[in-house]
Amino acid sequence: MLPPQPEAMPAWPAIRAELRRLVGESAYDIWLAPIEFESWDGELLLLKAPAATQTWVSERYGRILERCAERILGSVIKVAFSGCAQRRARPDESMAGAPSGLTDFNPRYCFEQFIIGEGNRLAHGAALAVAELPGQAYNPLFLHAPPGLGKTHLLHAIGNYVLAYGGGATVRYTTTEAFTNHFITALNSKSLEGFKHAYRNADVLLIDDIQFLASKAKTEEEFFHTFNALYERGRQLVLTCDRLPQALVGIEHRLRDRFAAGLVADIRPPDHATRVAILRKRAMLDQIAVAGPAVLDLIADRVTDNIRALEGALIRVVAYHSLTQRPIDEALTTEVLDVMYPGKRSRIPSIADVQTIVAAHFELSVDQLTSASRTSRVAWPRQVAIHLARDLTGSSLPTIGKAFGGRNHSTVMHACKRVSERLKNDQHVVDEIHALKLLLSGAPADRDY
Length: 449
What we know:
- The two termini are 41 Å apart.
- The protein has four domains: 12-87, DnaA, N-terminal domain (GMP Synthetase, Chain A, domain 3, 2-Layer Sandwich), CATH 3.30.300.180; 111-266, P-loop containing nucleotide triphosphate hydrolases (Rossmann fold, 3-Layer(aba) Sandwich); 272-340, Helicase, Ruva Protein, domain 3 (Orthogonal Bundle); 351-441, Chromosomal Replication Initiator Protein Dnaa, Chain: A.
- The chain is built from 19 helices and eight strands.
- Helix 3 (54-73) links the parallel strand 2 and strand 3 (78-81).
- The strands form two sheets. Strands 5-6-7-4-8 form a five-stranded parallel beta sheet, with helices on both faces.
- Helix 1 crosses helix 3 (54-73) and helix 17 packs across helix 18 (409-425).
- By secondary structure, the protein is of the alpha/beta class.
- It has helices at 12-23, 25-32, 54-73, 121-132, 151-165, 176-188, 192-200, 217-232, 253-260, 272-285, 293-302, 307-324, 330-340, 351-361, 366-369, 376-392, 397-403, 409-425, 427-441, and strands at residues 36-40, 44-48, 78-81, 141-144, 171-175, 204-208, 236-241, 263-266.
């Protein structure tokens, strides 16, 4: 750690560089470039900014500046602006003995850095409404999506917003796994009251991956009482999950009902334009120089269902560029992506393809699938096959009905409706349909997109 230097601070350029990396070029140039170093006494970093923007910059970016200073200097640092009232104590400073990490938000996970598309517009709008009016907009807010689509980003964005603009509101973030570990530790150390105080006194409680609460009876009981204590006092709860509340079969009915009582907002995989925008934003934040827009288009074409994998593909290309010193162009990008994300098969599957894949998946023959049998062993796979044929092949309803033993239009429609209904409420069906679609697209069914 660098020693205190009241008159000069050699670490200040490094802090500025870290700040630029975290907030991106645009925000840095507009708001943060004019900030000047004034003094440092080893604990307090005093800065000055233009009078017209100083108060706003202090409120909006003061906490991020503290994080940057701590990363460079290796100790807890307070940041203040000359002429502004000293920033209020950080929430975790008043939480002696509470579990660590409850207010540790990633500064890059903010609403400004979240790319909005058709698949996440509702979730983003609901999260922003909750951040602006905790306990008044949607309570609880239940964000549902497969992994890697931005649920955690929105949780951190809510946390960062409330810390910056919440007027001293207390916000806590935890994963279900961390909540469980904290609870077990509190039981073993006989410090349950401190545990309850840490969570039940929050104005906003953010819980990630609530599906992992399943089959943890004691932890579930404690969370039930925590949920009720906060909800009854009008405190905000936001939960994320990889499935709908009704599909949480390992969690008690009373909790599932409470999860579904507020707003359930899903996040769907981003469309091509949104994927390109995400990559463009990431390239800007990390100052990645790509040879042309075709590079980002190529990555967006290959990685379609998972934002984490999308950004990971870009990082992989950049890493290869760093090792080889080759420009980040289409040739390099194609070479790197071909290893992990080979080009998908362009041929549209036929009805016969769908029948073959679905029959094999359910351990049936195609003849059984298209037969007149109405047994459950055959009826459900047949409905799945009809649904996929309708969804993937572009064939008309009469054509599909004819291929499935001469069934009529209404039977095909009923099969499609039946599968659609179960997709809304049964995570196992969601996973099964997703795996079959991957098989029909030519991609390995176990790939983590």
